[in-house]
Amino acid sequence: MQAYHYFRPLLSPAKAWTAFRWQPVPVADDLAALTAMASACEPLARTFPILFPCAPGWLADGAFHRLLGVLGDGRAIPCLPAAAAADPAAETACRQLRGKGQPVAIEVADGDALRKLQPASYDHLLLDARSARNGLPLIDLINAHQAGFTLVAAGTVTHELFDWACAKRFALTSGEFIALTDPRHPVDADTTRLKLLKLLSLVVQDADTREIEEIFRQEPKLSYNLLRLVNSVAVGPRTPITGFNQAITVLGRRQLQRWLQLLIYANQFTQGNLPNPLLQLAAARGRQMELLVATQPADPALDDAGEAAFMVGIFSLLDTLLHMPMREVLASLPVAPPIADALGERGGLLGRLLTAVTAADAGDFEVAGAILDGLGVPARTHVDAQIAAYFWASRINLE
């Protein structure tokens, strides 16, 4: 099986994308393999720090320093394995990098190792959230934060674990929990669900513009959020969209339909102005699936495979958004059979791609890699699709 490379957002306590973690699988011990993929990361690296695995032996290699340059000096964050803390040569090399202002991370295995680390050698500490919660004395985390370390939590698999990490001053966390319903959160009122499902149904059926416009006339905040969403990425500040009819004219019906699919995640029925964190995840899934399906042979069951793949990716989080089983969501939506099969049963080509994408989001790289390899997706093509999808989704901002 090919070695695939996965990129996943690291979130701030406000759940905003703040950095990315690069995870080759199997874990790369080949500096050349990372260097070969580095140029593909450039668009994302210009905007976000990227934390990537680093073997201690690389630190004295000129190729490693060239890799830092490609990813952006001061923004690329090499992350050493926990065992490097006992390697005097690695410790010295890290101290020299830190002296030049280069961020350096290290994995933390236990409290004994944590207490011995010095900010002069490392500034980012990567900890497994569950292990830290269950196995580390709270005073050690407090001391690490006060010493100036940036704490990074991996394996943040529940909303409650995310809240714990934020309370313990972790600056960055992984985002597996975003795709899951928070059982502590009150279920939205049925009226809200009905409005969302009505809008979705009209969009899926490519309904007459006047029917869709009527929904927006009834919900001024819905219209307001559509304009903010479209203006954030679609056409840029040179051509601001100020009305629903103008949005249709400038964007065209197909592009508008995409923004309407995203709009359902935009917290339009709440008081806050911050974007629902599901918005960017849904956008990234949709765009990545659209790019990946283009690598596959044409499917006669799909009139427009790219559009169908985008819709599957976007709609894959509706059960989380609506607090409803996917089968109930699909019962209310007149989607084409291949789309319904992909969302409900993970069937067909779209279902396999969705399983790969969602497995990668959850950190189940073995499942993701097996599917991608079975579909013949080249590792570099997969990286390109991820970077393009995350870069596009990262620009969607309603703040």
Automatic annotation (TrEMBL):
Pfam families: HDOD. It comes from the Bacteria. Residues 186-381 form the HDOD domain. InterPro entries: HDOD, RNase_Y/CdgJ. PANTHER family: CYCLIC DI-GMP PHOSPHODIESTERASE CDGJ (PTHR33525:SF4), PTHR33525. This is HDOD domain-containing protein. It comes from Azospira restricta.
